[in-house]
Amino acid sequence: MSGNWWDILPRKIYSKLEQVETKQPWYSVYRIHDWLYALLEDGQYDEALMYLVIGDKRAAVIDGGTGIGRLDKLIEELTDKPYFLLLTHTHNDHIGGCKDFDEIYLYDDPMGRESAANGLGRDKMGEMIEEGAVIKPYPESFDPENFYAPPFDVTHWLKDREVIDLGGRKLEVIYTPGHSSDHICLLDREARYLFTGDTYYTGGVTSYLPGGDHDDFIASCKRLVDLMPMYDWLMPAHNEPLVEPSQMREMYEAAKCIKEGTFTEYTSRRSVATNYDLWIRRYQFGRFSLSVRESLFS
Ligand SMILES: [Zn+2]
To answer: From ligand 1's centre to the CA of 182, what distance in Å?
Structure first.
């Protein structure tokens, strides 16, 4: 067994979805409805998964991805509606694409304000293009020597429970700190989708990254479990779309049991991916893992 991250690609779900050819091969694009597309960066380790949600009046792009590709060019192939970027939070694999947008929505929180004001330098973006992290050829427009996320203008600061109207399509902001303090999920009550950002995906979920807080993470998962009657599918920001909602309960139970010490099986490692020095514990569950700060237990 070689054990490369890409060995499990393409993930099973994608064979059931309609793939759309575009002039931006950095992204793999799947049509879920005529108003909803999944935009996947399957050439990069994080498998960033963005969504294009098209209303009658305008379109929202949920998350910006790594910024290696040209997200604006891709969106313009898929819709002629005016579009804006709707960030679930400001980690490096979500704000890389901000450079391609004039209009950006973000939750109003100090972490988000700082990310927007300063962007992220090469030191914080570089890990995404380290040796072995990228398996697709870079787009011509991308210069790996000069890879950073410039500061960006937030044109609209979001509030909890705010409803974003796209014209015949509404997204409700659900503030869900824990993975980061500026994190939101987005609920489409009519189509019954919950866009989970990084609060749930079928990969390595974390509460230890910058801005993360495990107690907040537990509380946010609880809030999303309470909302389960309102959605039929989870739409995560990594790996794969269309995950059954019961996984949200599994994430909540996992986060709670880790804190309570019910789970004793974990692997320990020193974090090297971030610019602060800490030990983390990684717990493996059925379809995801959850990694937390070692200091949670001291
Ligand atoms: Zn994140």
So the answer is: 10
CA of 213 to the centre of ligand 1 (A): 12
> What is the CA(211)–ligand 1 centre distance, in A?
10
The alpha-carbon radius of gyration of the chain (Å, integer) is 18
Domains and CATH numbers, the chain: 5-254 (3.60.15.10)
Neighbours of ion ligand 1 (CB under 5 A): 91, 198
Distance 42 CA to ligand 1 centre (A): 17
Residues 186/96, Cβ–Cβ less than 8 Å: no
pTM of structure:
0.97
Q: In the structure, how many helices (H) and strands (E) does the chain have?
A: 6, 17
For residue range 90-105, what is the model confidence (pLDDT) as tens digits? 999 999 999 999 999 9
